[in-house]
Specification:
mainly beta; about 170 residues
């Protein structure tokens, strides 16, 4: 039994970020465990016009991650009441402007870049339970994003585990 706390905030001021996966504002309350994970695999030129994993002799990359509890109950997310007065501006791929989450039964956010195989579990397993909370959100500023797959605003109330997964992994061919 692990409930996420309530969040009641009044925030003001401008936020600006630059770079792959650089979120502007992120607010989370998660029951049962979870949070935020960011992983990146760097590729370097291999001398033949292709690329290989940095520090490796080639091959593929995978970055498994799990955010959430195993077999627990009563893991509800808290309530979020957020008043935000200010502009949010991000530049970069996967650079989300503003994320507000209340998640029951675990989860959160996972951002991956440069991996070939994506293996992410956001939420609990083994009959974990929990409800998402209420979100009350007022924004008096602008939210601007520049970059591929860079959402401006994401509001999530999730029960039963889950969250937000962002990646540059493309569709498989063949």
């Amino acid at each position: 039994d692990s409930r996420g706390g309530d969040i009641d905030q009044n925030r003001s001021g401008n936020v600006g970020t630059a770079g792959t996966g650089s979120k502007g504002v992120s607010i989370q309350t998660i029951g049962g465990g979870g949070g935020y994970y960011s992983g990146s695999v760097k590729r370097v030129p291999d001398g033949t016009g292709g690329a290989q994993l940095a520090g490796a002799g080639g091959g593929s990359s995978a970055a498994p991650v799990t955010l959430g509890p195993r077999g627990s109950t009563g893991n509800s997310g808290g309530h979020v009441d957020l008043d935000y007065d200010g502009d949010v501006a991000t530049t970069g791929e996967l650079a989300t402007g503003l994320v507000v989450q209340t998640i029951g039964a675990g989860g959160g956010q996972a951002t991956y870049t440069g991996v070939d195989n994506l293996d992410a579990t956001l939420g609990g397993s083994g009959f974990s339970t929990g409800n998402g909370g209420n979100i009350e959100f007022v924004n008096a500023g602008d939210v601007r994003t520049t970059g591929e797959r860079a959402d401006g605003l994401i509001l999530q109330s999730i029960g039963g585990g889950g969250g937000l997964g962002l990646s540059d992994v493309g569709p498989r061919e063949g």
